[in-house]
Write a structure and sequence with these properties.
With 114 residues, the protein is mainly α. The chain is built from four helices and two strands. A hairpin with a 2-residue loop joins β1 (60-62) and β2. The radius of gyration is 31 Å and the shape is rod-shaped.
């Protein structure tokens, strides 16, 4: 609705620009072109915002439309990342235990020396 109003309300001709070069010399065709363009731009923005609210952003915007990452690729990437995080946490736990053992050992040596 807003795109229709904006497309019609914009001036039909601009200084130094002839409508005949863009719309076969017809102000009606020019207004329709503007309405279609503004509607498509509005729709593109709305689709991107709706999908972004669901946590998905497009990986490509082209003349053919929006392209989103394949959910299979995304899911496998998430699974791989979770596995790597689990391994990293295990390594951190091992290092924590080794550090605690070293600190305990050094504390015991100080107690014996004193």
């Amino acid at each position: 609705m807003a795109s229709t109003v904006l497309g019609v309300l914009f001036p039909l001709s601009s200084p130094g620009l002839d409508a005949s070069s863009m719309a076969l010399g017809s102000n009606l065709i020019l207004a329709v072109q503007r309405v279609i363009f503004l509607f498509a731009a509005w729709l593109l923005i709305v689709v991107i915002l709706v999908m972004a609210s669901q946590g998905r952003l497009p990986v490509e915007i082209s003349g053919r439309g929006l392209r989103y990452a394949d959910t299979v690729e995304t899911q496998s990437g998430l699974t791989e990342t979770a596995e790597l995080l689990r391994r990293l946490n295990e390594q951190v736990d091992v290092l924590d235990r080794r550090l605690a053992a070293v600190e305990t050992e050094s504390t015991c040596k100080r107690c014996v020396e004193e």
